[in-house]
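Checklist before submission:
- one chain only
- standard amino acids only
- sequence pasted in full

Submission:
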Amino acid sequence: MKKLTFLILLIFIVASVFAAKPALKKTVVTPEKVKLGAEVSFVLTFSGKKEDIKSIKLFSVEFPYEAPIIELQPDPESKDNVWKAVGPVPYEAPLGIYNWEIKAVDKKDKEIVDKDCKDQTQGKTGKLAFEIIS
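Returned file contents:
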């Protein structure tokens, strides 16, 4: 009986380890209010390992066809699963709040979906926002 209990427990532990999927833990936009022409940085932290994620992209909600798709890269200096992108805000961008949907794809080409974001159009992993000011 003890062997059977141990075997079941071992199978459960192994299955739990392999079933763990990366999840979005934290998003940071710096600065949250940015001027035209200034740089804005996006830092996203995920659970798990960097190798578990294939790509991360940000899609504009308000301007899905005009705004560029922002592709994040893994941070080589971080031991954690941190992804970054830095770039200038175009001078011709309209002032206002910009909402972005996050789409992260794992190494099996499956989107990492957060239950609170499952109804989003372009990215179901998460969301973030920043404001362009004059």
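Reviewer check: DSSP finds one helix and eight strands in the chain.
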